[in-house]
Design goal:
The structure holds two protein chains of two kinds. By secondary structure, chain A is of the alpha/beta class. Chain A contains 13 helices and ten strands. Chain A has helices spanning 49-57, 82-105, 111-134, 136-145, 154-160, 177-184, 193-198, 201-220, 236-248, 266-283, 294-300, 318-323, 325-332, and strands spanning 11-20, 23-33, 38-42, 64-69, 72-75, 162-164, 254-258, 286-290, 303-308, 311-316. In chain A, helix 2 (82-105) runs antiparallel to helix 3 (111-134), helix 6 crosses helix 8 (201-220) and helix 6 (177-184) runs parallel beside helix 9 (236-248). The radius of gyration of chain A is 25 Å and the shape is flat. Chain A starts with 10 loop residues before the first strand and ends in a 5-residue tail after the last helix. In chain B, strand 2 (183-184) and strand 3 (187-188) form a beta hairpin. In chain B, helix 2 (17-27) packs across helix 3, helix 5 packs parallel to helix 10 and helix 10 (195-217) crosses helix 11 (219-229). The longest helix of chain B is centred in the C-terminal third of the chain and has 29 residues, at 295-323. Chain B is globular and about 60 Å long. The termini of chain B are far apart. Classes of the chains: A alpha/beta, B mainly alpha. At the A-B interface, helix 1, helix 3, helix 5, helix 6 and helix 7 of A face helix 7, helix 10, helix 11, helix 12 and helix 13 of B.
Chain lengths: 337, 388
C-alpha cells in the first residue's frame, strides 16, 4: 500500500472496470500519467470518458481495478467494508446484550449495574462517532489496521491533490467569485469549530491570507478585479475560468478538466489553451483533460488516450493518434469496401 | 462628485460619530452584537410601560412572556443553522428541545435524586442533545430533501412517545416535576420574580447570536453554504460533506438542548406534551417567516410570532368578550393560531419567499428558482452526471 512512488508516474490506473447493470461503461483500462505532462482523453460520445473521469475524481467507485496517486492507493475494489458497520455496532451490542442477558438470568439484580452497562454500550457507540468526526485520520488508520479499505471519496481526492472542474459548470452561483475560490481552498485551511466559535487569531490570520491568495488566483486565470462579482453574473467563458481557479485553490498536483472548451468561441478557446499551458509552466501542474475540440487536444497535449466503447483503443503522441487507423475508424466508421 | 449626493448616497463624513460607530461595529461584531442585545434587553421592559402595551398586561407578565419568547428565539437560531444555512430540512427539531429538558430533569430533580447546578447543566444539555443530533444525522445523511424531512419528522414523533411510554424512568404523562430552579451566588431564582430568568435569557440569546454569526462567516459556514447550493460540487472541492452536515445537526441540536434546559428549569416540570410536533412546526414557521439564513431576521421573526401568539391573540379574546360583538365574541383566537400561521406562510411563499428579513444570498437563490423554472429542474441532474 505504501510502496515508494515511482518517480515517473503521478497517477497509476490499473484495470479499471465499471459496469452499470449489463452495460460495461469502462472496461479494464490501464492508464498512467507522468508528472508535468498534459494528457488528453478523447473518444466518441458514450465511450466511457466521463465514467472514467468520475472514478478518478472519487465520485464513482469502480467495479474492479485500482487507482494509485503519488504512490498512495486511492481507489480499489472495496475490501471487507462490511466489517466497518460491525466495528461500530458489535462492541455496543456485546455489552448491551451482556447486560440484558445477565439481568434476564437473574445474575445481576442491582438495577444500577444494568443501567451502568447500558451507558457503557451507549458510550462505546458515541466514542466511535466522536473518533470518526474529530479525528478522521485516526479513524481511517483504525480501519486500515482492520484490513478495511474504503475507496477515496471526492473530498479525499482533493485532499490528496487531485482538483477537478465540471463539464456542465457547477459553480456556487449565488456566491461571489472570491467566495467560490475560498470554498475551493477548504481542504487547505485548518481552522476548526473551536476557532470559528471563539474567533481565534489563528482563524483570522488564516482567513486573511486565504482571501489574498484567492484574489491572486483570480488574477492568474484572468479574472482580475472580478472578486465580488456573483458567479452567475459572469460571462460563460469567465465562469469556466472561475471553475479552474476554484480547482486550483486546493493546490492540486493533478488537475482534471472535463471539457473545458465546451461552448466556447474560438477566441475564448485560444485563451484557454494559453491558460492551460501557463498552468503547467508556472505551477508545474499535471493536467488531464477530456475534450472534444481537436484544436485544443492536438495543440497542447503531450499524450492522447482514445477510448471507444469503454476500451482504450489507442495511446500516444497527438501525431501518432491522429494517424492510428483504429481511431479513424472509431470516429469516422470503416471505409466502404 | 455632486452626483453622489443626488443619488441619495450619504457622503462620507470621516471621523463623524456615526462613522466611528460603524467602523467599531465592523471590527468588533460580537461585542457590538452583545451590546445591542443588552440595549434591547434593557429597552423591552421599559417599552411595555408605555401605551398601548401597558393596557394588555402588567410589566412582570410582559417580562415573563419575553423570557418564554426567548426560548423560541434560541430554538429558531439553532434550527436556522440546520435549515437556513446548511439547507437540511428538519421537521423534528422539538426532539432535541425535549432531550435537553429531560437531561436537566434527570440532573436536578427529586425524581432522580441528583442536584447538579443549573449552569454546568446548560453545557451538559447542549452536549447530550448534540450527541443525539449526530446519532440521528449519521444514518440519514445520504438522504436528500424530502426523505430527510420524513426521517426527522419520525424522530420528532418517536422522542416524546418514548418519554411518554417509559413510565418507570420518566413518569409518563405526568412528567417529571419539582425540578430545581437555578441559583447564582446564593441567590435563588423564584417563580414570582421573572427578572433573573429574563436577564439569563437575554444573555443566552446574545451569546447564541454571536456564535451563529461567527459560525456562518467561518470556513465551516462557507462549507454549509456550498453544500446547500451544490453538494457534489462542494464535495469535489474538498469539503467533507458528511462531517459538515453532522456538525450542522449537532450545533442546531445543542442550541435546542440549551433552550430545553432553560425551559425545564423555568417551568420546573417536563412532560411529553410540551414537545409535540406543534413545537417543531412553530419553530420552522418562525425561521421561514423571519428569513432563512439571516440571524437577526430569524431572531426577530421568532420573537414577534411568539409575542403575537401568546399575548395579542389572548388579548383579542378578552377584548371581543368585553365588546360583545356577536360573532367575534364567540371566536377563540388562540384556537385560530394555526389557521393564521398557515395563511401567513402561504402569503409569504407567494409574495416574499425569502422571509421578512432575508439573508441576501438566500434571497438570490429563492428568487432565481422562482423566476427560472429550468434552474429548478437542473438541480436533480447530478444523478445523471455519473451515468454519462
Amino acid at each position: 500500500m505504501s510502496d515508494a512512488p515511482p518517480p515517473e508516474r503521478l497517477l497509476d490506473v490499473t484495470a479499471v472496470t465499471r459496469r452499470f447493470g449489463g452495460l460495461v461503461a469502462v472496461n479494464g483500462i490501464d492508464f498512467t500519467i507522468k508528472p508535468g505532462s498534459i494528457v488528453s482523453l478523447i473518444g466518441p460520445n458514450g465511450a466511457g470518458k466521463t465514467t472514467f473521469f468520475n472514478v478518478l475524481a472519487g465520485v464513482m467507485e469502480p467495479t474492479a481495478g485500482s487507482v494509485v496517486f503519488r504512490g498512495r492507493q486511492m481507489v480499489a475494489r472495496p475490501r471487507r467494508v462490511g466489517l466497518e458497520s460491525v466495528l461500530w455496532v458489535l462492541p455496543a451490542t456485546v455489552v448491551g446484550g451482556l447486560a440484558a442477558g445477565l439481568a434476564g438470568l437473574g445474575v445481576i439484580r442491582d438495577q444500577r449495574i444494568i443501567a451502568l452497562l447500558a451507558l457503557v454500550a451507549m458510550g462505546l457507540l458515541i466514542a466511535m462517532l466522536l473518533l470518526a468526526i474529530v479525528r478522521p485520520t485516526w479513524y481511517s488508520e483504525l480501519l486500515g489496521r482492520m484490513g478495511i479499505f474504503r475507496s477515496a471519496r471526492p473530498n479525499d481526492m482533493v485532499a490528496a491533490g487531485i482538483g477537478r472542474t465540471f463539464q456542465n459548470i457547477r459553480l456556487f452561483k449565488n456566491m461571489s467569485a472570491v467566495e467560490n475560490v475560498l470554498v475551493g481552498m477548504h481542504a487547505r485551511l485548518h481552522s476548526n469549530l473551536i476557532d470559528a466559535l471563539f474567533a481565534t487569531g489563528r482563524a483570522k490570520r488564516e482567513e486573511e491570507a486565504a482571501e489574498r491568495k484567492a484574489s491572486d488566483l483570480l488574477h492568474l486565470v484572468g479574472l482580475t478585479g472580478m472578486d465580488n462579482e456573483l458567479a452567475k453574473n459572469l460571462p460563460y467563458g469567465d465562469q469556466r475560468r472561475l471553475e479552474i481557479a476554484r480547482a486550483l485553490a486546493s493546490e492540486p498536483a493533478l488537475l482534471l478538466l472535463d471539457e473545458p472548451a465546451a461552448g466556447m468561441n474560438p477566441r475564448e478557446t485560444q485563451d484557454l489553451i494559453k491558460l492551460i499551458s501557463r498552468l503547467r509552466r508556472d505551477l508545474g501542474l499535471t493536467i488531464l483533460l477530456i475534450e472534444h475540440d481537436m484544436k485544443v487536444v492536438m495543440g497542447i497535449s503531450d499524450r492522447v488516450t482514445v477510448l471507444d466503447h469503454g476500451e482504450k483503443i489507442a495511446e500516444g503522441t497527438p501525431e501518432e493518434v491522429r494517424r492510428d487507423p483504429r481511431v479513424i475508424e472509431a470516429y469516422l466508421g470503416t471505409p466502404a469496401a | 462628485m455632486s452626483a453622489v449626493g443626488g443619488l441619495g448616497v450619504q457622503p462620507r463624513r470621516f471621523g463623524g460619530p456615526r462613522d466611528r460607530l460603524d467602523a467599531f461595529a465592523g471590527r468588533h461584531r460580537s461585542i457590538s452584537l452583545i451590546l445591542g442585545m443588552a440595549l434591547v434587553g434593557a429597552l423591552l421592559p421599559l417599552i411595555v410601560l408605555l401605551p398601548p402595551f401597558n393596557s394588555f398586561q402588567g410589566q412582570a407578565s410582559w417580562v415573563d412572556g419575553f423570557t418564554n419568547a426567548g426560548v423560541f428565539v434560541l430554538l429558531a437560531l439553532g434550527l436556522n443553522l440546520v435549515v437556513g444555512v446548511a439547507g437540511l430540512l428538519d421537521l423534528g427539531y422539538a426532539a432535541f428541545f425535549a432531550i435537553g429538558a429531560y437531561t436537566y430533569a434527570y440532573g436536578a430533580s427529586p425524581f432522580s435524586g441528583l442536584e447538579i447546578p443549573f449552569w454546568p447543566m446548560l453545557l451538559v444539555g447542549a452536549f447530550v442533545a448534540a450527541v443525539f443530533g449526530i446519532l440521528l444525522g449519521a444514518p440519514t445523511l445520504r438522504l436528500r430533501g424530502d426523505y430527510l424531512a420524513i426521517v426527522t419528522l419520525g424522530f420528532g414523533e418517536i422522542v416524546p412517545i418514548v418519554f411518554l411510554n417509559s413510565d418507570t424512568y420518566t413518569q409518563g404523562t405526568n412528567g417529571i416535576g419539582g425540578i430545581y430552579k437555578p441559583s447564582i451566588l446564593g441567590y435563588d431564582f423564584t417563580l414570582t420574580n421573572p427578572w433573573p430568568f429574563y436577564i439569563v435569557m437575554v444573555a443566552l440569546v446574545a451569546l447564541a447570536m454571536a456564535f451563529c454569526y461567527r459560525l456562518i462567516e467561518s470556513r465551516l459556514g462557507r462549507a454549509w453554504d456550498a453544500i446547500r447550493e451544490d453538494e457534489l460540487a462542494a464535495a469535489s472541492n474538498g469539503i467533507n460533506t458528511v462531517t459538515a452536515k453532522l456538525l450542522a445537526f449537532a450545533l442546531g441540536a445543542s442550541t435546542a438542548g440549551i433552550a430545553g434546559v432553560f425551559n425545564a428549569s423555568k417551568l420546573t416540570l417536563v412532560s411529553p406534551d410540551q414537545f409535540l410536533f406543534v413545537v417543531s412546526f412553530t419553530v420552522l414557521a418562525m425561521v421561514v417567516l423571519g428569513g432563512m439564513g439571516n440571524v437577526w431576521g430569524v431572531a426577530i421573526g421568532a420573537f414577534v410570532i411568539y409575542t403575537i401568539q401568546s399575548v395579542v391573540l389572548k388579548q383579542l379574546n378578552t377584548f371581543f368578550d368585553r365588546t360583545g360583538i356577536p360573532i367575534l365574541r364567540d371566536i377563540d383566537f388562540i384556537q385560530l393560531q394555526f389557521l393564521l400561521y398557515g395563511i401567513a406562510l402561504v402569503a409569504m411563499m407567494l409574495f416574499r419567499p425569502e422571509g421578512l428579513f432575508p439573508n441576501s444570498r438566500r434571497k438570490r437563490e429563492l428568487r432565481a428558482r422562482a423566476t427560472a423554472g429550468d434552474d429548478a429542474l437542473a438541480v436533480p441532474a447530478e444523478t445523471a452526471e455519473g451515468l454519462e
